[in-house]
Design brief:
The chain is an alpha+beta fold. About 35% of the residues lie in helices and about 20% in strands. Strand 2 and strand 3 form a beta hairpin. Helix 2 runs antiparallel to helix 3.
Length: about 160
């Protein structure tokens, strides 16, 4: 699906929960390297800590990111993703001594509905390294986090809503 198709009908709402997938440019497996992956993790935490988006769960796969987030008041979904991609691309490029795009321009998003369970979606996200055969236990995988499992992300904002 092309960039324009993904944007068609996209609407971003404050306090809405989204499941987002974004992919590395050319599906290059940049994030097989733990230190390159940590560059992206640092930017996920920045967006969370600065109050732009509330990370509920995420997993950084070798060539893509799954992220369950709640939007706060300050930024729309497109701006949050643009900020993540720009900041992480600068950090990754610096580590790799290169220039250019790290992420594909497009991303997939799904606004969660009231009948969807956040924990079920989080489990789906966290099971991706297992389904991909990268590990046999999520504890063996380094590039993930979830609000229900660790204290690293923090508490979930009760103002977040599902459609």
């Amino acid at each position: 699906m092309g960039y324009d198709q993904l944007r068609k009908g996209r609407y971003s709402a404050a306090h809405q929960v989204y499941f987002v997938t974004t992919v590395a440019q050319g599906r290059v497996a940049y994030f097989n390297d733990l230190w390159i992956g940590r560059c992206v993790v640092k930017e996920l935490r920045y967006l969370h800590d600065e109050g732009f988006a509330q990370s509920m769960a995420w997993v950084l796969m070798p060539d893509h990111l799954y992220w369950l987030i709640g939007l706060e008041d300050s930024l729309d979904l497109g701006t949050v993703l643009k900020t993540l991609k720009a900041r992480s691309a600068r950090a990754v490029n610096k580590q790799l001594g290169r220039r250019g795009s790290i992420w594909q321009r497009a991303y997939y998003d799904h606004a969660l509905r009231k009948d969807e369970n956040l924990r079920v979606v989080a489990r789906y996200i966290l099971n991706n390294p297992l389904r991909a055969g990268l590990v046999t236990d999520i504890g063996e995988y380094s590039l993930w986090d979830a609000a229900w499992i660790s204290n690293r992300i923090g508490r979930i904002n009760p103002a977040l809503q599902l459609n």
